[in-house]
Amino acid sequence: MMHTSSIFVVAALVAHAAAVGVSGAAEGFAKGVTGGGSATAVYPKSNAELVSYLGDSSARVIVLQQTFDFTGTEGTASGSGCLPWGTGSSCQVAINQNGWCQNYEPSAPTTTVSYDKAGVLGITVASKKTIIGVGTSGVIKGKGLRIVSGASNIIIQNIQITNINPHYVWGGDAITVDGADLIWIDHVKTSQIGRQHIVLGNGASNRVTISNNEIDGTSTWSATCDGHHYWAMYFTGSNDLVTLKGNYIHNTSGRSPKVAGNTLLHAVNNYFSANSGHAFEVDAGGNIIAEGNAFNNVKAPIDTSVKGQIFTAPSSSLSACTSALGRACQANVLTSSGAFTGTSSTGFFTNFKGKNIASASAASGVAASVVKNAGVGKI
Ligand SMILES: *[C@@H]1O[C@H](CO)[C@@H](O)[C@H](O)[C@H]1NC(C)=O
């Protein structure tokens, strides 16, 4: 027979589990991702527990309900650096990592740097993990997350990553994916980062969905020395299918995103705002359909040098998307922004065939809905 106390325990567990489950499901290329699946939730209470749960070989649902502050935990590094972007107090400083200053900016003034070591390399996330925050309480400070070496089936939802050496380029990335598959990054807010907010490195990261996130580029220091962070998103994988949907990408000044390598990107219903430089940088190997996005106060929605392909859904050719997406594209809307003129080749559309494709809504409603829905504490 069941004791009354056991019934209470069961009821409490059910209530708890319901409160911390993954919200919704990935749309687009990473559709089907399950992360830690139905594993019993764990609630790390210390940095060491968090690192252990993220990196071990068990399928896990890891619930974050506090701030994990890594700043200072690995000490301070001092060394040389350079000032390629100017000597003003609002300019970022580059760490001379692996001789970067001599190799790439030999004429830049040099300086000394002192930065937090913990920020440089993110916490390793192994396969089959769900990482979810409760409300707005799940925060990782001073260190990012790193998904590499073939890790697969990972969900990161409703957490914040912040304060990773924002003064210093090469001071660390918020989320690194480099050699992976089935990754879903959803309702995450990143802010105050040294290098990239989200980087899909040169390895094959296969199927990735990046949805409903807030990329907040507001910073005291930037490579454009104007409070707008330059290094927002960098997608250069060797075999990457990336769905970028419903994100709020604001107060940046470049690489929002940069796309190259061999990346097929579907950028849909994002809201780009207050960008003092460029949004899309399209390098060789980047193949992009950008539809249903809203741009407001974005100086250059696309950088002048385009070496890859980007279809920007001009109103006269919306039906061209049917061969790729199974439906017509939605037009983009631009206010107080530069032109968003892409390339005309649609030869790469065939690469979308047979893949999971995210839906699109009219761009006219995107700014309001994205501001309301993207980032932490909204699910
Ligand atoms: C973002 O940038 C805009 C203009 O570029 C500025 O008006 C706004 O204050 C910035 N937001 C923050 C939070 O700094």
From TrEMBL:
Domain of life: Eukaryota
Record's signal peptide: 1-19
Residue intervals of the Pectate lyase domain: 94-301
Classification via InterPro entries: Pec_lyase, Pectin_lyas_fold, Pectin_lyase_fold/virulence, PEL
Catalytic reaction equation(s): Eliminative cleavage of (1->4)-alpha-D-galacturonan methyl ester to give oligosaccharides with 4-deoxy-6-O-methyl-alpha-D-galact-4-enuronosyl groups at their non-reducing ends
Record's subcellular location: Secreted
Family listed: Belongs to the polysaccharide lyase 1 family.
Protein name per the record: pectin lyase
Organism, as annotated: Cryoendolithus antarcticus
